[in-house]
């Protein structure tokens, strides 16, 4: 049964049905909400050396694993080397020396290698989904190409250096630009979101949300990282599924460079 379902999901990933990425993720994770963490432990962390090809990078000094996702040839996951549920874990929002986003961004060339050609930074992105929208209870940040719609959002959103309200695929969210040239991530996006949210939250808590990060280099204006904050708001149609900004098929990355 499991093998049949994975085959069906692989077929779905190549067709229109794959548009519902949230459904796909929930189905893949439906076998067990801790299966991802078990796989990472058994394949990457317990042996004296990584025992599986999915363990692309195991960096115990920084405390992260770059793990090959089961769906999508260019899709990878940044995972801590210790148990941590996700955005609902208070440790995620604490300042510290570990920056999962920076680790993932430094490893971004792996996406181009999977596609078969070097990719510009402006076609890559990182995303973490809200607790409401995730399938696995181990923190994992998705790394892949951005989608066509995400590129349009990034180029046409007039995103400035202060948080502003925007909409993506009909869902409300906020975004801001962190200027950076060259393309080295200068902040921890978790800290950036926390500083703003806690300044407004009456109870001092950080509600369920997704976060997306990508690099922009417009013809006019500063280059830098766009950080998107997508709080879960069922009344307004926001589910915090930030990986909707990514494309597991990497259409933009596989296109002829002259088409960009």
Automatic annotation (TrEMBL):
Topology class, membrane: Single-pass membrane protein
EC top class named in words: hydrolase
Family matches, as Pfam families: CDH
Alphabetized InterPro entries for the sequence: CDP-diacylglyc_Pase, HIT-like_sf
Gene Ontology molecular functions: CDP-diacylglycerol diphosphatase activity
EC number annotated for this UniProt entry: 3.6.1.26
Gene Ontology cellular-component annotations: plasma membrane
Keywords for this protein: Cell membrane, Hydrolase, Lipid biosynthesis, Lipid metabolism, Membrane, Phospholipid biosynthesis, Phospholipid metabolism, Signal, Transmembrane, Transmembrane helix
Protein's cellular compartments: Cell membrane
GO BP: CDP-diacylglycerol catabolic process; phospholipid biosynthetic process
Reaction catalysis annotation: a CDP-1,2-diacyl-sn-glycerol + H2O = a 1,2-diacyl-sn-glycero-3-phosphate + CMP + 2 H(+)
Metabolic or biological pathway, per its Swiss-Prot or TrEMBL entry: Phospholipid metabolism; CDP-diacylglycerol degradation; phosphatidate from CDP-diacylglycerol: step 1/1; Lipid metabolism
Endpoints of the signal sequence: 1-19
Family assignment from sequence similarity: Belongs to the Cdh family.
UniProt name for this protein: CDP-diacylglycerol pyrophosphatase
